[in-house]
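To whoever picks this up:

The nightly regression suite flagged Small-conductance mechanosensitive channel as changed. Nothing in the input moved, so I suspect the structure step. Input below, exactly as stored in the fixture:
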Amino acid sequence: MEASSENLIAAAGDVWQTLTALIVAYAFSALGAILILIIGWIIAGLAERWSYSGLGAFKHIDETIKRFISKTLRYMILVLVGITVLSQFGVQTTSIIAALGAAGLAIGLALQGTLQNIAAGLMLLFLRPFRVGEYVDAGDVAGTIKEIGLFATELRTFDGLYVMAPNSSLWGKPIKNFSRNTTRRADIAVGIGYNDNVELGRSLLLDMMKQEPRVFDDPAPMVFVTELADNSVNLGLRYWSQSSDYEVLKSDMTNRAKSELEAHGLSIPFPQRDVHHFYEAGLPPREAAAGSDIN
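Regenerated output under the current build:
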């Protein structure tokens, strides 16, 4: 019994000595790791705030991209701090970096579509083919931009519907921005009869556009013959105006063009067809007309 007690006491003493040696050996490493964590956390926060404030000096940089860059910088610093802390305890950081690289590659392959949308979102935010409040048409998607995110863009269609479009679907197609340029050209087609005076029609329509204050004098409005159609002589009205006036002004000018032409005796033709009756010899006119051909 005495031998067993002595062995137990000796084993406990060995364990205590081992723990003491470990504590002494890693005390400075643990203290250094704690200091590195505290300092790294402070530096990461300061870097996030400074980068966000610095990017705020550039007015053309979107709010979303400012937050994304500042957050990314913070997390990169924190990752470096974590690797440095592990190296304090003798961990081989080379293998950790390799493991992180492999994990990043696997995650990238799994989230290929999502990363594609993020890349497209960054390009949209940097190159800015459209801004919030502008009306755009990108093929399958058209509407007023409500928000540009890293993954998707929110739009409101012309008839009031909500649309969330993945950024890759917008970036991969030509984008028509109807709000970016402050001026816009409008073309209106108006038909008059073949028996009407073409020069009178051109003069009336040109005077009408010149009297409209929303129509620009430079470039000057124009009226010209565009086509000798089946039932009418088509006149083209072309003018420039503010983009904000485009829809309402085009409707007003179309309505006024009809009223102006009719007020001066010019007709607005509609599709017509001439019917010719060919009478067969020996048949009364009524019976021949019943079997006539219509061209």
